[in-house]
Amino acid sequence: MWGDESKPPLLLIHGGRDHARNWDAVAEAFVNDYCIYAPDLRGHGDSDWAIGGQYSMVDFTLDIAQLADVLDRDPLTIIGHSLGGGITLQYAGTCPDRVKRAVAIEGLGPGVMPHRPAHIRMTEWIDHMQQFEKRTPRRYESIDAALKRMEDENPHLSTELARHLTVHGSKQNDDGTYSWKFDNYVRVHSPYEFNIEDARDLWNQVRCPVLLIRGDESWAGDPEKDGRASAFHDYRSVVIKEAGHWVHHDQLEEFLKVSKEFLAS
Hints:
By secondary structure, the protein is of the alpha/beta class. The chain has a single domain, classed as Alpha/Beta hydrolase fold, catalytic domain (Rossmann fold, 3-Layer(aba) Sandwich). Helices cover 38% and strands 15% of the residues. The strands form 2 sheets. It has a 6-stranded parallel sheet, with helices on both faces. It has a two-stranded antiparallel sheet with strand order 5-6.
């Protein structure tokens, strides 16, 4: 938690394979106006791993609902990135009276994917789960080796930020090597396809203003062009230039400008 609890609540939800400390710069920028809460999702950061690797959208959304009960500070303003953006929108649609404003950074994913037969998806999922039972987390000889992997994943990052994310996102093993904190099972996708009809129904229940943000260099689909944005009653869609998937890292100042204008409007 950052800030004074007498100020309005702001919940920050990180993306897949990330952790709460990836919000540090954003929290510092908002702390004068909000009391900020940034959890580690299950299987991420310093949170416990789920037995059996249960990491579906519905599980994460349930976790946020339970956290909101504990905080007891409704309605919440929520900013989520990637997986966290998807959770933000699903929670806002499931519990519309509990969300004041929602910002989803790359939270709608790559777009509507082609349908694949259920028997193929189930076979592949079982195969993936069995493979993961035999895997051990990758080990890096040093923080610098893990840092290089972080920088390779996102070339927009400054060395300082990449090191910050690496230090807080990794743990030292008994042999002195380093591994990422997240559970490897978060990589496994559910055999159940993303259901655009169900998603649109949930998004259509959202009653708060919504800000959809994406980077112009990202793989994320354009919700204006593919029609997904039309499910929201009150939304604004913004594309930030020279930004990839991690918009709030790649163009922090522009992200803060757009977000603060939206939250203050």
